[in-house]
User: Which sequence fits this backbone?
């Protein structure tokens, strides 16, 4: 993955939380570069949050800009990677609802992401297997409630160290030993297991 | 129900490696089906490059996006409205026909403010009149952002700068 790729840093980098916290503290001291790195790292997640809330692409772009601009005045209360990610996710959801409530160009719910997905053209055999897995995944996701679809779409883009903070924010119950799977992922897992050889290969 | 019942899929079980694999699959699927526009982080970084520490954020409230290219080649004007807690900023953008645009703007409520137009080259700066009007006669096309700052002789309560998101002229 190059640096513009998906945001999630592999779990093998336990220093990620410390790295993000350090960027936050540099950003507080006025480092545009540190703030820019946070933007690069976390915007792909926020894009999915805004799109999952039903915004069109133009509105989603506006909302992301607004959220990052608002963060500048809120950095003082944020000290950890988890707190930053949770604040950004929540604020993106709120700003997205605000835009929807204002009645600007919005997607009817049933014209959301599920129907807008491209048909995969036939490719190599390897590609065909990936496509098959993908089709099974979309099929299973499509059977979940809209709330579960939105929630899974969001947490899938959250890096592991931030998972608990975001899960708390989104109302996934906390287990005694750490993050739990939650109702939505549990349901999806059953659906995937019932549909062919399962998604957990 | 034991956690291993129903293919180990109890909702209150801790995340395991299969869950993480499924989440990774979801992430890859959405990243491919609905990717963030690659130039968006750059635009966000542009709008965050501010010398003001305390800012009030104006949100895009309305825009009448004309067709990108009018039929006769002559581009139409476009109006964009931004709202913040204390101000409404309305601008009209007209093509100068030479690769630059003219931007006319109004602040409501009317007041004297210093207006900076940040562009991809050097920033431009004007002061509004008593009616809150301002104009930039020549602005290069590209990414731009407005920053409304307190004016020397402006209202005393207006201490914070108001910033808009970056927009493409």
Assistant:
């Amino acid at each position: 993955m190059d640096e513009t790729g998906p945001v999630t840093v592999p779990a093998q980098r336990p220093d990620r939380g410390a790295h993000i916290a350090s960027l936050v503290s540099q950003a507080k001291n006025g480092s545009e570069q540190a703030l820019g790195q946070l933007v690069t790292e976390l915007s792909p997640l926020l894009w999915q949050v805004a799109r999952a809330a039903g915004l069109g692409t133009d509105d989603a772009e506006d909302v992301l800009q607004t959220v990052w601009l608002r963060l500048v005045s809120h950095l003082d209360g944020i000290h950890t990677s988890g707190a930053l990610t949770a604040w950004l996710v929540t604020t993106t959801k709120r700003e997205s609802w605000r835009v929807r409530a204002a009645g600007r160009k919005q997607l009817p719910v049933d014209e959301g992401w599920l129907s807008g997905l491209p048909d995969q053209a036939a490719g190599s055999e390897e590609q065909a297997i990936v496509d098959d897995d993908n089709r099974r995944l979309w099929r299973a996701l499509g059977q979940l409630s809209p709330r579960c679809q939105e929630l899974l779409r969001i947490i899938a883009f959250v890096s592991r160290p931030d998972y608990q903070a975001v899960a708390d924010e989104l109302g996934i119950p906390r287990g005694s030993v750490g993050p739990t799977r939650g109702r939505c992922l549990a349901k999806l897992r059953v659906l995937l297991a019932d549909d062919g050889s399962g998604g957990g290969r | 129900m034991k956690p291993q019942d129903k293919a180990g899929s109890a909702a209150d079980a801790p995340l395991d490696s299969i869950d993480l694999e499924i989440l990774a699959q979801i992430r890859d699927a959405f990243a491919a089906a609905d990717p963030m526009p690659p130039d968006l982080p750059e635009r966000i970084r542009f709008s965050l490059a501010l010398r003001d520490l305390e800012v009030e954020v104006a949100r895009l409230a309305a825009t009448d996006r004309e067709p990108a290219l009018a039929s006769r080649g002559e581009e139409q004007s476009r109006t964009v409205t931004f709202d913040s807690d204390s101000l409404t900023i309305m601008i009209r953008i007209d093509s100068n026909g030479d690769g630059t645009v003219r931007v006319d703007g109004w602040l409501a409520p009317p007041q004297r403010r210093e207006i900076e137009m940040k562009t991809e080259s050097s920033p431009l700066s004007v002061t509004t009149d008593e009616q809150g009007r301002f104009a930039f006669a020549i602005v290069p096309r590209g990414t731009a952002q407005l920053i409304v700052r307190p004016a020397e002789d402006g209202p005393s309560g207006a201490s914070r700068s108001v910033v808009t998101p970056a927009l493409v002229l």
Notes: The two ends of chain B are 60 Å apart (CA to CA). Residues 1-5, 68-73 of chain B have pLDDT under 50 and may be disordered. Chain B touches chain A through 50 residues (CB under 8 Å).
